[in-house]
Design brief:
There is one protein chain. This protein is of the alpha+beta class. It folds into 6 domains: about 70 residues, Ubiquitin-like (UB roll) (Roll), CATH 3.10.20; about 80 residues, Ubiquitin-like (UB roll); about 80 residues, membrane protein fhac (Ubiquitin-like (UB roll)), CATH 3.10.20; about 80 residues, Ubiquitin-like (UB roll) (Roll), CATH 3.10.20.310; about 70 residues, Ubiquitin-like (UB roll) (Roll), CATH 3.10.20.310; about 325 residues, Porin. Helix content is about 20%, strand content about 45%. It contains 12 helices and 35 strands. It has a 16-stranded antiparallel beta barrel. The chain is elongated and about 125 Å long.
Length: about 750
């Protein structure tokens, strides 16, 4: 029975609506001053000669309200006329921002607001817009910004909106905490995140201010770090930021490390459209990684090898993906290689580069607009950008282009402080030494490096100015310029010596992990001796000039360039005379091997050998080889090897072997200090013009401890050394320290 009455009710309602409907022959519009009748009819979707029911009228009202042109809309139907009575919103004539000088901030504020200039002034939007402005400032680190508004009436139809802003001070990060990090020390994680604790020596850093953008970046960096060290399922479960009224903040990240995974199997699955045999050589490479901890970096290295095979065989539109199958703390990896979609790159957009010139970024990209689109090329481009060491983070998005076979790439850059200041000093038996350096790694936002170093001790003063453009041509080659001036004044030993050297060097990647270099150097040397000088030294007195060519190579298989934990690097360089008053050939070879026994012990073995040999003449003192206090710790720079009287003259040959063990977890975490042990061996020998001066072939050795302390005034390193083997003529150095920070 109830259903029956419901049906009857619906029928009667429909009949009533139908009876009320009228055919609209014309429209009568009242109250519009700016908006034309035609525009109103268009936006209202009003059609003449049509039956209009009550639902049709309601639709017209809804359509007109949705334009945001009208504050009030009334629509009635009378004698076949659709009568529309309107009240237009006033116009926002000007949006005036007081108290904010930054044009960039003003643009961000206007973007966040619903109210726009020359559009309807809808007062109900104002409260939400004020909230949005405060959120903008909070996002940028100003969590206590004051925002007030007032409206200025120009006439009945036009208003000005005045927003008064008081930024206040940025909310500074006083402490960064981590919870749940059982395997990695908090100090190490603080180095990973972009956010920095506010210290007085970091007054220039932008990352000491709390912002949502930085926190999101921190989460991504932490997650990536854990996963790069075998913690496959590591997650940042939560983050909290406690802000105090004083404008200080404390950030806490909650971490779930999960289990650490080992790679137990690697294989390749190749699509039938390709020759499978060309990928067989990868099997030998895979063996190096089986049994090691899983890391996205290792996967990338393997993908690089796959890319090299693809490149060497000129394969087009090839794609690959990685299939990772989890076991009990193990991962088996399958690389799937298949034919990809035949798409082209339509457009590449660069975002976030506030300092860095866009051409620097585009110069590192493997793919360009108009090129075939492959994820392989895009991923390699991103890797090249990250390797520049001027960006904190680089991400990308791929979007559909204007056609089905076109893709647009959006690359997002997060920049980091690129200035460096360093200082160091040493204390030894011959007095003290001091050094200071200033370096900018992104000069003028062009990705170029500019540096100056000054070294001072009791007997010498040396300064070096250098300039590096890592991408000076379209081939991606680098070019390096340097000028070095050195003056040695040793009247007690009968001589003074001044040299100035200029060098230009270019380097380029020849093969994967192999870089070649070519260069030219010119130098002027003025050696003046006194009556007190030895006879052999007086023979070298005079002015000399020379031009030489040099070449070299490096083979770099380290897991990372900064603080490597695995891999090796080999370098060689040779200098050949082109024109010289006294000709010589110089050779330098170095090799380093890194290995991690565990997270508690990371070892490094470093070998250095350098030689110089005269051509039909002896090698003068300014060109002879010495050992620095970094290669043979515990001894002063250049104060080991052959002596002429009391004067260390260097030798034709120099060699050093360094054995190091880094112990990152040796001291308690709250000490903010990492410790390493070292054992150094070295010697300088060979005097071609007088072999009697080379009296000792004894290998020098030393041991000691190095400490890196994150001090209240900046990162500091200390080296305490004890010589094991030395000669009576050697000058030792028991203590050395360095201080450095970024800006």
């Amino acid at each position: 029975m109830r259903n029956f009455f419901t049906v009857i009710f619906i029928i009667l309602t429909l009949q009533f609506s139908f009876l009320k409907a009228e055919i609209v022959n014309s429209t009568i519009i009242n109250g519009n001053k700016r908006i034309s009748n035609e525009t109103i009819i268009l936006y209202g979707d009003i059609k003449l000669k049509k039956d209009y029911s009550e639902s049709d009228i309601n639709k017209v009202i809804k359509n007109l309200y949705s334009t945001n042109f009208f504050e009030d809309v009334q629509v009635t139907l009378s004698e076949n006329n659709l009568i529309i009575n309107l009240k237009e919103y006033p116009i926002l004539n000007q949006l005036i921002l007081i108290g904010e000088k930054s044009s960039k901030f003003k643009d961000e504020i206007k973007k966040s607001m619903q109210l726009k200039e020359k559009r309807s002034f809808i007062k109900s939007y104002l409260a939400k817009d004020i909230e949005n402005i405060k959120n903008v400032y909070s996002y940028l680190g100003f969590n206590f910004a004051k925002v007030e508004s007032r409206v200025k009436e120009i006439d009945d139809e036009n208003f000005d909106l005045i927003i008064e802003i008081e930024r206040g001070n940025k909310t500074k990060i006083k402490k960064i905490n981590f919870v749940g990090n059982k395997s990695v020390r908090s100090n190490r994680l603080r180095e990973i995140v972009a956010s920095e604790e506010d210290k007085f020596w970091k007054v220039i850093s932008k990352n000491t201010s709390l912002s949502e953008n930085l926190i999101k970046l921190d989460e991504r960096l932490l997650r990536n770090y854990y996963r790069s060290n075998g913690f496959y399922n590591a997650e940042i479960n939560s983050k909290t930021a406690t802000v105090k009224e004083a404008g200080d903040a404390e950030i806490t990240y909650s971490i779930n490390e999960g289990e650490r995974f080992i790679i137990d199997k690697i294989s390749t699955n190749v699509d039938s459209v390709f020759d499978k045999e060309i990928f067989f050589k990868l099997d030998e490479i895979y063996k190096e990684y089986i049994g090691t901890y899983h890391s996205p970096f290792k996967i990338k290295k393997l993908l690089d090898n796959i890319d090299k095979v693809i490149e060497n065989n000129n394969l087009q539109f090839v794609e690959h993906n990685v299939q990772e199958n989890l076991g009990d703390n193990t991962i088996s990896i399958v690389f799937n290689i298949f034919e990809g979609e035949k798409n082209l790159v339509e457009r590449i957009n660069i975002l976030g580069n506030n300092v860095t010139d866009e051409s620097v970024i585009r110069g590192e990209l493997i793919v360009d607009e108009g090129d075939p689109f492959t994820k392989i090329g895009l991923d390699k481009s991103i890797s090249e950008l990250k390797a520049r060491n001027i960006f904190k983070d680089v991400t990308y998005k791929v979007k559909d282009g204007s056609d089905d076979n076109l893709k647009n790439i959006e690359i997002n850059i997060t920049e980091k402080p690129t200035g460096e200041i360093s200082a160091g000093a040493g204390v030894g038996t011959n007095g003290g030494s001091f050094a200071i350096g200033i370096k900018e790694n992104n000069y003028l936002g062009e990705g170029k490096q500019l540096g100056f170093d000054l070294e001072v001790d009791k007997e010498s003063l040396a300064g070096t100015f250098s300039y590096l453009n890592p991408n000076y041509d379209f081939l991606g080659n680098s070019i390096y310029y340097s000028v070095r001036s050195e003056k040695n004044d040793v009247p007690t030993r009968g001589y003074e010596n001044s040299t100035i050297t200029g060098e230009v060097l270019t380097s380029f990647e020849q093969y994967k992990d192999i870089n070649l270099s070519l260069g030219l150097a010119a130098s002027y040397d003025d050696l003046q001796t006194l009556d007190s000088a030895s006879d052999s030294l007086k023979k070298q007195s005079g002015e000399f000039s020379e031009i030489s060519a040099n070449y070299g190579f490096s083979f770099d298989k380290r897991d990372r360039k900064f603080m490597p934990t695995d891999g090796s690097i080999i370098t060689f360089r040779q200098s050949l005379p082109l024109h010289a008053d006294k000709s010589f050939i110089g050779n330098t070879f170095s090799a380093s091997k890194y290995f991690s026994f565990s997270e508690d012990v990371i070892t490094a073995t470093k070998l250095y050998v350098s030689t110089v040999n005269g051509i039909d003449d002896d090698v003068r003192i300014s060109k002879r080889k010495t050992l620095s206090s970094n290669r043979l710790r515990g001894f002063e720079k250049g104060k080991v090897g052959p002596v002429d009287g009391n004067d260390h003259i260097g030798g034709n040959y120099a060699a050093a072997l360094n054995l190091e063990a880094n112990l990152p977890n040796f001291l308690p975490e709250d000490s903010n200090t990492d410790v390493s042990l070292f054992l150094d061996f070295g010697n300088v020998w060979g005097v071609d013009y007088d072999s009697s001066l080379d009296k000792s072939s004894k290998v020098r050795s030393s041991t000691g401890i190095a400490a890196n302390w994150n001090s209240p005034i900046g990162p500091m390193s200390f080296i305490f050394s004890q010589t094991l083997q030395k000669t009576s003529s050697d000058k030792t150095e028991s203590f050395n320290f360095n201080l450095g920070t970024t800006f």
